Amino acid sequence: QVQLVESGGGLVQAGGSLRVSCATSGRTFSSYAMGWFRQAPGKEREGVSCISSSARTTDTADSVKGRFTISRDKTKNTVYLQMNDLKPEDTGVYYCAAESYAHSAICSLTDYYAYWGQGTQVTVSS
Question: Which of 35, 79, 87, 109 has its CA 20 to 30 A from that of 99?
Answer without folding.
Answer: 87
